[in-house]
Design brief:
Blueprint: H1 3-11, H2 32-58, H3 63-70, H4 73-106, H5 112-119, H6 121-124, H7 127-138, H8 145-148, H9 159-184, H10 187-195, H11 200-228, H12 232-238, H13 248-257, H14 261-293
Helix pairs in contact: 2-14, 3-14, 4-9, 4-11, 7-9, 7-12, 9-11, 9-12, 10-11, 11-14, 13-14
Domain ABC transmembrane type-1: 79-282
Transmembrane segments: 40-60, 81-103, 123-144, 156-175, 207-227, 234-253, 259-282
GO molecular function, one term: ABC-type sulfate transporter activity
């Protein structure tokens, strides 16, 4: 092969010359238009149409009827318990989920794979089974409850039991969100900070935490959203006492059993709107944190 031919081969095709595609010019994935069409169709069937039906059923109520349905003392008490317990459980999961993720990423120990698999257990375990297990453990005659109740510590059939159940089902969301981010963080930055005289707390607060803060907020949002709609694991350990340990999903179920469909959708719409606003605020905090840390 001559030098001229080699130079031309390295230079590539001349401008204006079409380059044939391999495989006959066919792409593996479909084009943008058909992909977007299927995406919108799927979202409409799964999300938009059910939500539209929810709002449409609620609109059959007059404003006084709607207000009476969503603002009765029993419903307001369920709001306070549901959102308060969900928020508290998400906070606890954020702290201890970060700790669990840190241990799984940064340390090697015997049985690490077993611990890593146990984190996913709440995903695979039916929620009703989780509720029954926690009740058997924490009730007055349970393995743990029989020692706590004589001390005046009652967990089952109280709002405390609701928080414990929500912590149980929400922990994996934080761990599995933070874990891959910790694995991708550069340890060289931590070593450089320590070489420059930074303490362990300064290294964590100035180097590690800004990198994992968006993931922590995402895990918090996912755990919080999961806890708000939880039903199966809570009803067994809550006791379901009106004005004390009755969650909002149970209120909705009760209205449905009484054939008060409009009242049930009214309470559901309030939960939906409050959840949407809180998730919108959390997403805004995520965007602010990325912008502040110089991320994309």
């Amino acid at each position: 092969m001559s030098a001229t031919t080699s130079t031309a081969a390295l230079a590539g095709p001349a401008p204006g010359v079409a380059v044939p595609r391999r495989n006959g010019g066919k792409r593996v994935l479909p084009g943008f238009n058909i992909t977007l069409g299927y995406t919108l169709l799927y979202l409409s069937l799964i999300v938009l149409i059910p939500l539209t039906a929810l709002f449409a059923k609620t609109l059959t109520l007059s404003w006084p009827q709607f207000w009476d349905a969503v603002s009765s003392p029993r419903v307001l008490a369920s709001y306070r318990l549901t959102f308060g317990a969900s928020f508290l459980a998400a906070i606890v999961n954020t702290v201890f989920g970060l700790l669990v993720a840190w241990v799984l990423v940064r340390y090697e120990f015997f049985g690490k794979k077993i611990v890593d698999a146990l984190v996913d257990l709440p995903f695979a375990l039916p929620t009703a089974v989780a509720g029954i297990s926690l009740t058997a453990l924490l009730a007055g005659n349970g393995w743990v409850g029989q020692y706590l109740e004589p001390l005046g510590i009652k967990l089952a059939f109280t709002p405390n039991g609701v928080v414990i159940a929500l912590i149980f089902i929400g922990l994996p969301f934080v761990v599995r969100t933070v874990q891959p981010v910790l694995e991708d963080t550069e340890k060289e930055l931590e070593e450089a900070a320590m070489c420059l005289g930074a303490t362990r707390w300064q290294t964590f607060s100035k180097v590690i935490f800004p990198a994992i803060a968006p993931a922590l907020l995402t895990g918090f949002a996912m755990a919080f959203a999961r806890a708000i709609g939880e039903y199966g694991s809570v009803i067994f350990i809550a006791g379901n006492m009106p004005m004390v340990s009755e969650i909002t999903p149970l209120i909705i179920i009760g209205k449905l059993e009484q054939y008060d469909y409009a009242g049930a959708t009214a309470v559901a719409v309030v939960m939906l709107l409050i959840s949407f606003v809180m998730l919108l605020v959390i997403n805004g905090l995520q965007a602010w944190q990325r912008k502040r840390s110089g991320g994309v």
